[in-house]
Amino acid sequence: FPFFFVQIISSLFDQIFITRKEMREVLTIEVGQAGIQMGNAIWEQYCAEHGIDRTGQRKEANKNRDTSFKVFFEETESGQFVPRNIAVDLEPSVIDDVKNGPFASIFHPEYLLNGKEDAANNFARGHYSVGKPMLDRVMDKMRKLVERSDNVMGFQMAHSVGGGTGSGLGASILERLTVDYRKIPKLGFEVYPSPNLSTCVVEPYNALLATHSLLENTDVSFVLDNEALYGICQKQLRIQKPDFDNLNRLIAKVISSVTASIRFSGELSVDVADFLTNLVPFPRLHFMTTGMSPIIPKMNVSMIPVDVHKITDDCFKPQNWFVKFTEFDPDEDRYMAISLSYRGNIQPRDSSNAIQWLKDNNKIRLVEWCPTGFKVGLNDVPAATLESDDIAAFDKNAVMIANNTAISRVFTKRIAQKFDLMYSQRAFVHWFVGEGMEEGEFAEAREDLDCLSQEYLDTCSSCYSHFFFFFYKQNIVVVCAVMFVLTKCFDFFFELEIRS
Ligand code: GDP
Known about the structure:
Layout: H1 2-17, E1 24-31, H2 32-50, E2 73-75, E3 81-83, E4 85-89, H3 93-100, E5 112-114, H4 123-129, H5 131-147, E6 151-160, H6 165-180, E7 186-192, H7 203-217, E8 220-225, H8 226-236, H9 244-263, H10 272-279, E9 287-293, H11 308-315, E10 335-344, H12 348-360, E11 374-379, E12 396-404, H13 408-423, H14 429-433, H15 440-474, H16 476-499
Parallel strand pairs: 1-4, 1-6, 4-5, 6-7, 7-8, 8-9, 10-11
Antiparallel strand pairs: 2-3, 9-12, 10-12
This protein binds guanosine-5'-diphosphate.
Residues 32-34, 37-38, 119, 160, 162-166, 191, 193, 197, 199, 203, 226, 244, 247-248 line the site of guanosine-5'-diphosphate.
């Protein structure tokens, strides 16, 4: 009896005084072919970094190490780690590939959803006709994932904007998440189309309509531009004809660095809310440019830079960016905010020195109204190298996430111009209207994109007015002196005139 009594007292003590540490989960959702294939590469990268094998078991040696990765993985009663993830497509082939692929057994089959009929590269089919019944299934699964979490930190969606499912159904899911979970931030990893890897004619329509929805329904969007990724693979990694696998492995490397400070506990960690607070000065201007360094092919391992200055500097070079800008001008295209995530053995002092060096040498131009501009994350675990990687292994790297005004040109020059050409003839519009979309939505989305580019311009015009004000204040003495001389000259000539 005394033993039993002591046990009851002890369990009561536990319940009252020892509260379980609350987990903050990130729930991910992959929509459409690009989203799911990109997701496969990302989960493979995460598993390698946390020592999780293809059956979801964690290797013995890692068992007592950092458990922050549970933000992304749920532990089952049998000790298996399952991604907190939903993968959804409107047709079966891509989901079937996952079910029959090497990582099939880590995903919960209930959360791999597919329909029977695809979106036929049509935003309207994904958003209205074919996508509608799927939306309820997805939201039902999402509700279950949320219920199984302690306190969701954020949602992350991976999808493309050029197809039909990722863009149309992706937009519907984001809209519903906004309504159902208003306070939980939403991050998007959005693949923007490239002419080199184009899979359909109406990509500009889909991309424009999806971007219109992203403006309202994501808090941060990471623009992953297939054109830039294709260029990096060809020029830097010397892959003659890159395919989606090559692109996705690069994307996985950068996303793993973006989320590293959430998945590992570190000295200078950045969580989802930190991203928002530091990177988004105005709610609509939330489209990020990402860059990574080093990007060196496997055969050139001797060229991997080890010094923090070099990797920081390289991050800010347009050839290392995952968005391609036509004629990036470092003077005109200003940064509104920057987050730098370092991985590997890097001391805070070294990263601060590197950033100061960038500022001192005018390598970056911040808008006048945001003088600090930098958020730094340090994580001492380097990115894992996979056998299938095209990129050389590195023991330290840097990833830049920047809010730069140049991003508006991706929308205006790359999407809106092509959209205008087709829409001026109303070409292909009947396919969208036939699936339940109103024609007015095209005009509305197009107008909204014009407003967005004007908003980006305004942030810079206000920096020019600040610039003139600053110039005026600095030179007030000179201005007074010039005005004095001019008045004297005027008096002199006026007197001369009167005398003559
Ligand atoms: P959906 O399934 O209807 O959403 O269509 P997709 O996801 O295939 O969207 C087509 C766009 O996504 C095109 O711009 C393709 O170039 C791009 N895309 C398709 N698959 C991949 C992929 O695995 N990786 C990348 N980076 N882009 C892809």
